[in-house]
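Subject: Sanity check before I submit

Could someone independently write out the structure tokens for this chain? I want to compare against mine line by line before I put it in a report. The sequence has 191 residues.
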Amino acid sequence: MTKNLKALDFLLSRRSHPSKTLKEPAPSLDDLKPILTAAMRSPDHGKLEPWRFIILQKAALLRLANCASLRAIELDLPMEAQKKVEFFFRNPPLSVAVISSPKESEKIPELEQTLSAGAVCLALVNAALASDWGASWLTGWTATDRPFLTNHLKLEKHEFVAGYIHIGSKSSHPPERPRPDFKSITNIVSD
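---
Independent answer below. Compare away.
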């Protein structure tokens, strides 16, 4: 058996970078291509590709910040929530919206397709981190609010955002956080 110790070490020490710590420059489209290609290697039973990407560059993020702020007002969200959602889109240098787009299938349940979109999100974050970018996977109410998705991201009725993957240059190294205890969340069944 040949172990890839570098990959294992990376996975054991990987740490998302909070969106508020991401700075310019953002990755170029050339930088993004291998990152997105790696993300597409996620499990996809039936080869349905039940996900897709929307690359949100800075101008699009600023537009969405305004749209989200207005939508928050329509929803009568508190002022703090309005400011938070505006910052959510205004701050990152770039974001990739991973769109869960399940396909009709007699063999592959929709839930499995949704889980595949989640796997793409994590693979995208890990590929960005491995490429020395800062990255984080976030959602929030704009990931599922139908008017926002339809009017501002132009999604179909069956689609939603599995994750906004914010990517940019690292301004600091995030501190380690407590991790789950292996023994408390693991059952071993031997027969």
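---
OP: Matches mine. For the report I'm noting this point. The mean pLDDT is 96.
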